[in-house]
Amino acid sequence: MDKAINAAIFDLDGVLVDTAQYHYLAWRRVAEALRIPFTQEDNERLKGVSRSQSLEYVLQKGNEAMPAEEKREWASRKNEWYLEYLAGLNETHLLPGARAYVDSLKKAGVRIGLGTSSRNAGIILERLRIQDWFDAVVDGSMVAQTKPDPEVFLKCAQLLQVQPEGCLVLEDSTAGIQAAKNAGMKCVGIGDKLVLKEADLVVSGLRELLLSPVRYKEAAP
Ligand code: BG6
Ligand code: MG
Regarding the domain delimited by 7-18+94-211, which CATH topology (the fold level of the hierarchy) does it fall under? Predict the structure, then answer.
């Protein structure tokens, strides 16, 4: 990983903020209500994937056919439950090292982007008071295809005016790592080395990157 990095594109849930657990709890509640088994492994598959695609996965697992209207109801019920879990969200839910790592990148002249599948990104950034961290934000409401499609990262790179090969993606999901690779970007996996095998580098959290920083070059003028 010694190529010049001019932009860092962060995933949101599970990378900057501890919300991945709430998505898990809400999907498990949906699965239980529909009497569909739901394991940690299923949860890994849902990470990074849009709300509607996640529901499709759960229904497929349970061999459950459902009319479109009912699907919409379940997706919105999942979101209500998720938002209930988010009720107390504030700055203390930022993951360790997130603020310091973003600061260190900014000081090195690296542009900062957000590339998330979430349609709740606006609320979350506001509650964390971190809207001003980003030079560009692309969320789930701005793309047609969900990760592993590269659309969200390519769109973010375009807004940042940085070529894909100059972007480093930080991701906690296998779908997101594949999306970064499909976009032709470098990718640091945040989490378990055994799960995030396709990343260029895997660390347990952003704090670890502060201790052994990836090399950066100042952003192109
Ligand atoms: C991703 C999460 O960031 O956003 C997924 O990893 C989630 O678990 C997806 O399904 C969509 O989020 P939301 O907030 O729009 O339901
Ligand atoms: Mg994530």
Answer: Rossmann fold (3.40.50)
| Structural domain boundaries in the chain | 7-18+94-211, 20-86
A 10 A CB-CB count for 35 gives 8
The ligand 1 atom nearest the CA atom of 23 = 8
Q: What is the pTM of this model?
A: 0.94
What DSSP string runs through 19-85? THHHHHHHHHHHHHHTT----HHHHHHHTTS-HHHHHHHHHHHTT----HHHHHHHHHHHHHHHHHH
Which atom of ligand 1 is least distant from the CA of 140? 15
- Which ligand is closest in space to the CA of residue 147? 1
50 lines ligand 1 (CB under 6 A): yes
For residues 25, 30, 31, 32, the Cα torsion angle rounded to the nearest 10 degrees is 90
CA atoms within 13 A of residue 193's CA, in its CB half-sphere: 3
Residue 172 appears among annotated catalytic residues: no
How many angstroms separate the alpha carbon of residue 108 from the centre of ligand 1? 30
Task: Give yes or no for residue 140 CB within 6 A of ligand 1.
Answer: yes
Q: CATH topology for 20-86? A: DNA polymerase; domain 1 (1.10.150)
Mean pLDDT per 10-residue segment, the chain (221 residues): 81 96 96 95 95 97 96 98 96 96 94 98 97 98 98 98 97 98 97 95 94 53 34
Atom of ligand 1 nearest to the CA of 48: 6
For tokens 């900062």, the residue is 112
Unique residue bearing structure tokens 């590339």: 115
